[in-house]
Write a structure and sequence with these properties.
Layout lengths: L2 H10 L4 E8 L4 E4 L5 H25 L7 E5 L3 E7 L3 E8 L8
Antiparallel strand pairs: 1-2, 1-5, 3-4, 4-5
């Protein structure tokens, strides 16, 4: 099994993972979760690419020597995780529930 396939399998079996998309630096979808249509994956990848370009710009503006490698966006019910590699971008959405406060 290739390294890419092993990575996809590790992501796929994680509890809470709802979707994943792997695309190249140009935003072309290379792999996606099977129940996600190609159109949905392309739209999702395009939206996340736009967000990450802006986020990377902010990080560089704050410190030109720094580079964004990982982005985590949390909403009420989901988290979107984006990891950057030299050739690929991995985008994962997972369910999120807030931790219960302890007294």
């Amino acid at each position: 099994m290739s390294e890419v396939e092993e990575t996809i399998e590790r992501i796929r079996v994680q509890e809470g993972v709802e979707n994943y998309v792997i695309c190249n630096r140009q935003g072309q979808v290379l792999r996606r979760r099977q129940d996600m249509t190609q159109e949905e994956a392309e739209k999702f990848a395009s939206s996340m690419m736009a967000l990450t370009v802006q986020a990377r710009g902010v990080v560089r503006d704050m410190d030109p020597k720094n580079e964004l490698k990982y982005l985590r966006v949390r909403a009420r019910k989901q988290e979107i995780l984006v990891a950057f590699d030299t050739q690929f971008i991995v985008i994962v959405t997972q369910r999120w529930t807030p931790a219960v406060e302890r007294s």
